[in-house]
Specification:
With about 230 residues, this protein is mainly beta. It is built from 4 helices and 13 strands. It has one domain: Beta Barrel (Acetoacetate decarboxylase-like).
Length: about 230
């Protein structure tokens, strides 16, 4: 499928690797940076979602999403591992759970960018209703553009996802998009329960923040990791 990811925020916390590894299935290993695992809270707006070669699906092509993720390797593939993905669109939630083996959750989800350029305010709100209740509220102020260093590349330059299904089957989906245009961001407000709902301890300290106006993305069909 093809889609656009717009008004996206990367909010990351460093964890001790053993804290995160215990939540991963056999065959999936943490990818670390300078000995630390990173867990991200990532809100953004999905735009123009469509199956390749087909028009957008009416009423389900544009919506907000907030995911909780970490970074892994599996069968020598570097990828994103999702603990949860929240949307307020029921059809994409059910399709993604079935077709991409991803733990999508359903509820009220909004991501709003107020203003343009430096000084704009991004807010994110989630009220999860299914499969269990949880919530998140976040606000940041967008800052100056930044050239990615080693940590920024580690956190954002990911070209695939790994997921699992029944019987401990592992799947890989390749992801294509242009390099992220990145900006610094300043935390204004954070009240999040999505990270702890994934089974992680409450995040330590303030997050490392990066904002991007977005990229165009292609996600390929899953292939079984043998």
């Amino acid at each position: 499928m093809t889609q656009q990811w717009q008004d996206l925020l990367f909010a990351h916390w460093a964890y001790e690797p053993e804290v995160v590894q215990r939540l991963l299935p056999s065959g999936v290993e943490l990818d670390t940076f300078e000995g630390k695992a990173y867990v991200g809270l990532v809100p953004f707006n999905m735009r123009n979602l469509r199956l390749r070669g087909l028009p957008p699906i009416p009423t389900t092509s544009n919506f907000a999403e907030v995911n909780v993720r970490t970074y892994v390797t599996s069968r020598s593939r570097s990828a994103v591992w999702f603990f949860s993905l929240d949307t307020q669109k029921l059809l994409p939630t059910l399709v993604a759970r079935t077709a991409f083996k991803l733990p999508y959750c359903y509820g009220t989800t909004r991501v709003t960018l107020t203003g343009t350029g430096e000084g704009a305010i991004l807010t994110s709100n989630v009220s999860r209703k299914w499969p269990h209740h949880s919530s998140s509220a976040l606000a940041v102020r967008i800052g100056e553009s930044v050239q990615p260093g080693p940590l920024e590349n580690f956190l954002t330059s990911r070209w695939g996802l790994v997921s699992s299904s029944r019987g401990d089957r592992l799947w890989y989906g390749a992801v294509e998009h242009e390099p992220w245009p990145l900006h610094r961001a300043e935390l204004l407000h954070l009240d999040d329960n999505l990270v702890t709902a994934a089974g992680l301890p409450r995040p330590p300290g303030e997050p490392h923040l990066l904002f991007s106006p977005g990229v165009h993305t292609t996600i390929h069909s899953l292939e079984r990791l043998s």
